[in-house]
Specification:
Blueprint lengths: L1 H21 L5 H24 L4 H22 L5 H21 L4 H19 L4 H61 L1 H10 L7 H19 L10 H13 L4 E7 L6 H21 L4 E8 L7 E7 L13 H13 L3 E6 L5 E7 L2
Helix pairs in contact: 1-2, 1-4, 2-3, 3-4, 3-5, 4-5, 4-6, 5-6, 6-11, 9-10, 10-11
């Protein structure tokens, strides 16, 4: 709105400059009047551009001086006695009304418009202007104020709608982040605490065995960390150490794991954590479903280079028919989805009587 009303004022000042340039050498008061209008315009719009909005006192001064006092000064001391010579000064009232409509307080806008209309009525009567000239200028003044106010109202309304849309988008993102955090907590509980409780409930372990008690202690500590951790905490900084922690957690539940590592690359902490969590769930599946107490884990860097890694978990159990098997929460959420979230992928290769091979690969 500052730029729009500035351009409007610039067009009126240009008309005044051309009018004085094309006339015979006029009275010095006419040049002084144009200079005063130019100076007020620099004050009003220069300050507005610098501060980001209009100064109300500057706008009031512009209405009173450029819009109201200048035409009478030109008539009284500038030798202006005809409508053509008075026209450029009256035009300044139109741009003054536009700035007043957007900058002044609500009850002050009608007062400014009334003063400007009275100036037109009296000023043009003094120089003998006809009804058509008077009606045209008054109409221009009124509609200048009306259009400026409507544009300003529309921009404020659109700004409020945009702010509300941004607020809704931020709320949706926050809700999505909270949901993702809850989902991650659910998957972590499924892979650790729930796996331990399920094994104990099945009666296959002595709850008082030292390894089981140690496992339960670790799970209790994990629960406390899970409750207290923030969204940016990552507990695994290196893929080998992360996998060793996952293997240790399942070995405490009497699953023997033969692990082999070769040329492991440095990966981002979140990728190491995803590898470890997905491998732990794959090992939990071996313990729960394979009917064997032994699993094999290998981890290596990709032979093509580029910093990628591949982890495989293999068992020699009975396997299953992939076409008849519906993946459960552990395989869907804790293996496939965990790897997908960090840009990796998981594949399961199995057949009846052939065991199961789970491959975790990053990048996918």
């Amino acid at each position: 709105m500052i730029l729009a009303t500035l351009l409007y004022r610039a067009s009126h000042l240009t008309v005044g400059l051309l009018a004085l340039a094309r006339s015979r050498p006029g009275h010095p008061m006419q040049y002084a009047g144009l200079a005063a209008a130019l100076g007020l315009s620099v004050l009003v719009y220069g300050t507005a551009l610098r501060r980001g909005w209009f100064d109300r006192w500057h706008v009031r001064a512009d209405v009173l001086v450029s819009g109201c006092a200048l035409p009478f000064a030109l008539w009284a001391w500038g030798g202006v006695q005809d409508p053509a010579s008075m026209g450029w000064a009256m035009l300044l009232g139109g741009s003054a009304s536009a700035a007043a409509a957007v900058a002044l307080e609500r009850f002050q806008v009608p007062a400014a418009i009334v003063l400007l209309v009275l100036t037109h009525l009296i000023g043009y009567r003094l120089v003998g202007a006809g009804p058509a000239v008077l009606a045209g200028h008054v109409n221009s003044l009124l509609f200048s104020a009306a259009m400026a106010w409507v544009f300003w109202w529309y921009l404020r309304r659109q700004g409020r709608l945009l702010d509300e849309a941004n607020a809704r988008a931020l709320a949706a993102e926050a809700h999505k982040a909270r949901y993702a955090e809850r989902l991650e907590h659910h998957r972590a509980l499924h892979d650790t605490v729930l796996a331990t409780l399920t094994t104990l409930a099945a009666g296959g372990l002595d709850a008082n065995a030292p390894q089981v008690r140690e496992r339960c202690g670790r799970e209790a500590a994990y629960l406390r960390r899970l409750i207290q951790q923030t969204a940016d905490e990552v507990h695994h900084r290196e893929i080998g150490a992360a996998l060793e922690e996952a293997i240790g957690s399942v070995e405490s539940l009497q699953l023997r794991v033969t692990a082999r590592y070769h040329d492991l690359p440095q990966v981002p902490p979140e990728v190491a954590a995803a590898f470890a969590d997905a491998a732990r769930e794959a090992l939990n599946n071996v313990r729960r479903h394979a009917g064997t107490g032994h699993a094999y884990l290998t981890a290596a860097g990709e032979s093509q280079g580029g910093g990628g890694a591949v982890v495989t978990v293999v068992d020699r159990g009975p396997g299953f028919d992939p076409e008849r098997y519906v993946p459960g929460l552990g395989l869907r959420g804790s293996v496939h989805r965990r790897m997908a979230e960090v840009g990796g992928r998981a594949t399961v290769d199995t057949a009846p009587g052939e065991g199961v091979r789970v491959e975790l690969r990053w990048p996918g």
